[in-house]
Write a structure and sequence with these properties.
Layout: E1 25-26, E2 30-35, H1 49-66, H2 71-76, E3 80-90, E4 99-110, E5 113-122, E6 127-138, E7 156-157, E8 179-184, H3 200-206, H4 211-216, E9 219-226, E10 235-244, E11 247-254, E12 257-266, H5 271-278
Parallel strand pairs: 1-7
Antiparallel strand pairs: 2-4, 3-6, 3-9, 4-5, 5-6, 8-10, 9-12, 10-11, 11-12
Length: 279
């Protein structure tokens, strides 16, 4: 159900069925500095959308690992975080060799959804990218969705979810006919869960779009909802529809069900050079 990955964070309480209620500890924000490397950039020397997603994913994993909650420990405890949906807002994509301060904030679950926000700031404090992810806690073997209370064994208290917007995010499939693309899943698409990594879907989406949009414009917003995992050998049938002068819808079918839906918004043509000059 989702391009899953060794994952991020989130809330806590009783240690076992028979234990007394344990004390919670407030999880802190986590931050680290990175420098944008050449392999992370596209042909315009800007960090690719998929690598923004990879850094976002890694920030979540690094954060809870610092709290002693590793991917392996969660597996032993019978749970894993799966990406449900993601929304990325971009002022300007980072460029090659730029130093960035990454900050991630886990927020209390809302319903079955865990929430994590991650920010990409310049060393001058300018916010370039904001990502918000909804995660679902699931059994790693059956992929049955678990209640957030299952994570309570780790005794962590998250930040309030006031002002969150990811849990209500939806993508509406357009009525207009689109252009059909086919994409077979290969070895290089897979992660340690043997499914397509969530970040790879950004490359899949971008590969269906006109090259001049990706070169001459800036991505302003990217939203994706994961619905069914794609595995090696499957062919994803992609439907790409231009929904406005600055946006595309891309939906994917794999096997007998919908795999994902995405919406990508761009600046007007010509605005990119203005943004880069202001950098």
């Amino acid at each position: 159900m989702w391009g899953a990955t060794p994952g991020p964070p989130f809330q806590a309480a009783p240690a076992s069925r028979n234990d007394e209620r344990r004390a919670y500890r407030l999880i802190r924000e986590f931050e680290k500095w990175i420098e944008v490397t050449e392999p992370e950039c596209d042909l315009t020397h800007r960090m690719s959308l998929s690598n923004i997603m990879r850094h976002t994913q890694q920030m979540g994993s690094d954060h809870i690992a610092r709290e002693g909650i590793t991917y392996e420990r969660m597996q032993r405890d019978g749970m894993v975080f799966l990406v449900n949906k993601m929304l990325i807002t971009i002022k300007r994509r980072p460029i090659y060799a730029e130093r960035l301060r990454l900050i991630t904030v886990p927020r209390a679950p809302k319903g079955a959804q865990f929430i994590r926000d991650t920010y990409f700031d310049t060393k001058q404090g300018e916010r370039l990218v904001e990502t918000s992810i909804s995660w679902i806690l699931a059994d790693p073997c059956t992929h049955r969705i678990l209640r957030p209370a299952a994570f309570d064994i780790y005794g962590l208290e998250m930040f309030p979810n006031d002002g969150e917007y990811i849990t209500a995010y939806r993508i509406k499939k357009p009525d207009a006919a689109g252009v059909r693309h086919m994409r077979q899943i290969k070895y290089s698409d897979l992660d340690s869960n043997s499914h397509v990594n969530n970040a790879v879907y950004a490359d899949i989406v971008c590969d269906t779009l006109p090259l001049d949009w990706l070169v001459e414009r800036e991505i302003e917003r990217f939203g994706i909802v994961y619905q069914k995992e794609a595995v090696t050998g499957q062919v994803i049938e992609l439907d790409t529809v231009q929904i406005s002068q600055c946006a595309y819808y891309v939906g994917g079918m794999a096997g007998d069900g919908r795999c994902f839906e995405a919406e990508i918004n761009f600046t007007e043509k010509g605005e990119l050079q203005v943004k880069l000059r202001k950098k």
